Amino acid sequence: MPIENQPRPAVREITDVTPALFHEQILAEARPVVFRGLIADWPVTQAGRASPTILADYLKRFDRGASVGAMFGSPGIGGRFFYNDDLSGFNFRHGSVRLSAALDLLLDYAREETPSSLAVQSVPVHENLPGFEAENRMPLLQDAVEPRVWIGNAVTVAAHHDPSENIACVVAGRRRFTLFPPDQIANLYMGPFDPTPAGPTISMVDFDAPDLDRHPRFADAMKQAIVVDMEPGDALYIPYMWWHHVRSTERMNMLVNYWWTPPDQGRGRPTDAMMHAILAIRDMPRPHRDAWRALFDHYVFEDEGPAATHLPANRRGVLGVMDAPAVRMVRAALARAMGRP
User: Fold this and answer.
1) Measured in whole angstroms, how far is the alpha carbon of residue 298 from the centre of its chain?
2) 13-22: Cβ within 8 A, 24+ apart
3) Would you list the domain boundaries of the chain?
4) What digits encode the pLDDT tens for the residues 21-57?
5) pLDDT tens-digit readout, 276-292
6) Burial level of 219, CB count in 10 A (0-12/13-18/19+)?
7) Which CATH number fits domain 3-260: 3.40.50.1240, 3.40.309.10, 3.90.1170.10, 2.60.120.650?
């Protein structure tokens, strides 16, 4: 059976989500959910539905003229921002542009039969579009979560994940999200940690033309894929660390997203811990790695439950409650250890 015709998991769709339902149930389940029409009444969504020109005029009201990050690609890349052939760089260039100028470029490109590709990436609204958030409020989150704006034409972003919770709101155009649970990493054939197109590592698979001789396990990933087609006004909850491939299909598309994570309380980034483990453990003999895997499963992932319940509470040390003094002590010990040759 062709990959595109395989049965796949269905996505839950809700049309009347409340903040209580979202925070008390949906976040705990950690599965993607579509909120149909959640932001349909936003003024910016209504502008996007009217026309690309009206959307551009609406956004220009808030633009303060600061430069924003963007990716520029030639017509030859077909909207797919990716690596060059030898992975030494990319098939596009990074640059900066004023938002109003980018909007004018997109309007010009919309008149071309084979346009260049342009994607304005992750623009924080507080600094760059003051007043936008007041007119377009996310009903599920507190104002402390800053929205970010993404604008472009028909472009494709390779499968990647973010170490954060995410609500993605489609304001203009249509988007197809293809989502995978975190455990599908081996089946997605990830690229290098450095360089990356925009920070996260990305899948090396071309979703439009997968090479199953080169990437055979991708067929297994697609059996777990959740494919969601989004219309203007729809929002999508993408759980922490879920992989997502994003295809925008119109001549002008806009998305507003919200990233947030619980406060880390000074404990550091999990990515740093993983890199240290790659350095310290990955190249050990397999029996040694297996021994450390058992310790990680026991002490870190607590596969069999908390590791120190058999000890008195005041003798559990780092295996007990990690309060602020304990966090500082562990970080100081790590700093001393990492400072040694």
Assistant:
1) 29
2) 17/140, 19/139, 19/140, 22/140, 22/237
3) 3-260, 270-339
4) 999 999 999 999 999 999 999 999 999 999 999 999 9
5) 999 999 999 999 999 99
6) middle
7) 2.60.120.650
Starting at the edge strand found earlier in the chain, the sheet holding 12-14 runs 12-14, 33-35, 235-238, 165-172, 253-260, 147-152, 117-124, 67-73, 92-98
pTM for the structure as a whole: 0.92
Under 8 Å between Cβ of 1 and 21: no
Residue segments in the chain with a per-residue pLDDT below the cut of 70: 1-7, 341
CA 125 – CA 149 distance, rounded (Å): 7
Instruction: Please provide the DSSP assignment of 78-122 as one string.
Output: TTEE-B-TTSSSBSEEEEEEEHHHHHHHHHHHTTSSSPPEEEEEE
